[in-house]
Amino acid sequence: MGFLPAPPFGQPRPPAVIDKVGFTVDKIRAAGKVAGTLVTADELPYGLEKGLQFFYAHSAPSFALD
């Protein structure tokens, strides 16, 4: 689709990607399989609503030390 795997920090994922993920999850769940995908914290509620059972949310621990 030409999009990055993850949106830039603080930006939502493009609607076209969300729609395609939802469509794919519906097909996977209808087949009785476990569905999972990459998510941001803001996308977790949508994923739970769609029936996702496996989530990967990356965290890059970068702390500013004084």
Secondary-structure element order, N to C? HEHE
Order of strands, main sheet, comes to 1-2
Main sheet characteristics: 2 strands, parallel
CA radius of gyration: 14 Å
The amount of helix comes to 25-40%
Name the beta content range.
5-15%
Number of strands: 2
Shape designation: globular
pLDDT averaged residue by residue: 86
* Separation, N- and C-terminal Cα atoms: 42 Å
Structure classification: alpha+beta
Number of helices: 2
Low-confidence stretches: none
Give an overview in words.
The protein has a domain at 15-56. The chain has 2 helices and 2 strands. It has helices at 15-30, 44-50, and strands at 36-38, 54-56. The relative contact order is 0.18. The protein is globular, with a radius of gyration of 14 Å. The protein is of the alpha+beta class. It has a two-stranded parallel ribbon. Helix 2 (44-50) links the parallel strand 1 and strand 2 (54-56).
What are the SSEs and their pairings?
Blueprint: H1 15-30, E1 36-38, H2 44-50, E2 54-56
Parallel strand pairs: 1-2
Please give a quick description of this structure.
The chain has 66 residues and is an alpha+beta fold.
